[in-house]
């Protein structure tokens, strides 16, 4: 153990700043793997002079009290780690450097949002008034993650106002051990895929649909095969505006015109959502009766028995709210598909 601590493990006593410092990022001699190719203009003799080797046999010594203790390591020069004027900067971490467990080479540490990027997301949404969809497309962060960052940042600021302690040192230590996505204002770094197609429940079954060779079968036709109300893929992705922008680009529209059309489309979408929300509130106020008491408010709504549907599981019925037991674990139920549409 002392031999490893005095040899390859000595570099972990002073971790490299701005790096995850996983075991797989170093070779068996304690040298950073991605820094080997950074030595420019040095021959093998000069590289050997940059590294002072430690005597592997003398890994223990006896102190004045006669106890065996690990020998103090000699000063080691880390070849290719310190930045100099004649050497390029340290390369970015590769996938090989993001393996924290040497025996599990299939696991890779995923990038997390840096504190600067979290602050930028909060400022754009809360201070500048940008929509979650716009911030997600601009910074390459999924919309659900943008919403989570805004909520947690608001909670953090509320705790600061109340004078509650916040573990900034702990957060800094954890972020130092994980790869993070930096915030670059003029050239944002994509954090994750933001336009993945969600799996619709109607598409989980296998369907064999014969189509003639002369027919022009599109994605819209394929969606109708699964479900009559199923929209095509380009209308079900989270960021449909990106698909439309790409279509306008292929049509030859210039960038200024594409931006103008996109802003007009966003304004129409906002107005339509406000109109739908207003109609929903009006219908709810018309159909629901409210009775205020001293302690609580009672709400009454007329429910029709037929609203539960033939199966009794319609979302319009009262059963959808209070729950209906599933039949998947009931004895005698057939759990495999009995037909192929």
From TrEMBL:
InterPro entries: Ribosomal_mS45. It comes from the Eukaryota. It comes from Letharia columbiana. One of its GO terms (molecular function) is structural constituent of ribosome. Residues 41-65, 265-293, 309-341 are annotated as: Disordered. Residues 41-50, 265-275, 282-293, 309-318 have a biased composition (Basic and acidic residues). This is Eukaryotic mitochondrial regulator protein-domain-containing protein. Pfam families: Bot1p.
């Amino acid at each position: 153990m002392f031999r490893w601590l005095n040899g390859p493990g000595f570099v972990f006593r002073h971790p490299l700043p701005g790096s995850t410092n996983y075991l797989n990022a170093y070779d068996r001699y304690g040298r950073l793997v991605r820094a080997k190719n950074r030595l420019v203009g040095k021959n093998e003799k000069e590289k050997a002079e940059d590294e002072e080797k430690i005597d592997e046999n003398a890994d223990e010594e006896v102190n004045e009290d006669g106890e065996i203790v690990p020998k103090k390591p000699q000063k080691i020069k880390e070849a290719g780690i310190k930045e100099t004027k004649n050497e390029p900067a340290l390369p970015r971490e590769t996938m090989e450097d993001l393996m924290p467990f040497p025996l599990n080479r299939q696991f890779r540490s995923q990038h997390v949002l840096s504190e600067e990027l979290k602050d930028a997301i909060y400022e754009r949404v809360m201070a500048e008034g940008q929509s979650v969809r716009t911030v997600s497309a601009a910074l390459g962060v999924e919309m659900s993650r943008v919403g989570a960052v805004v909520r947690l940042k608001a909670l953090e600021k509320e705790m600061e106002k109340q004078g509650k302690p916040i573990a900034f040192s702990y957060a800094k230590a954890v972020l130092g051990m994980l790869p993070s996505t930096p915030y670059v204002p003029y050239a944002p770094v994509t954090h994750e895929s933001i336009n993945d197609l969600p799996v619709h429940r109607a598409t989980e079954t296998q369907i064999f649909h014969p189509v003639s060779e002369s027919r022009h079968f599109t994605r819209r036709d394929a969606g109708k095969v699964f479900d009559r109300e199923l929209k095509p893929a380009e209308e079900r992705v989270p960021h449909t505006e990106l698909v439309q922008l790409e279509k306008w680009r292929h049509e030859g529209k210039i960038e200024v015109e594409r931006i103008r059309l996109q802003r007009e489309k966003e304004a129409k979408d906002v107005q339509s959502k406000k109109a739908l929300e207003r109609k929903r509130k009006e219908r709810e106020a018309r159909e629901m009766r409210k009775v205020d008491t001293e302690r609580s408010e009672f709400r009454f709504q007329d429910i029709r028995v037929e609203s539960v549907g033939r199966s009794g599981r319609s979302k319009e019925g009262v059963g959808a709210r209070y729950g209906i037991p599933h039949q998947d674990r009931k004895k005698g139920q057939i759990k495999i598909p009995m037909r192929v549409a």
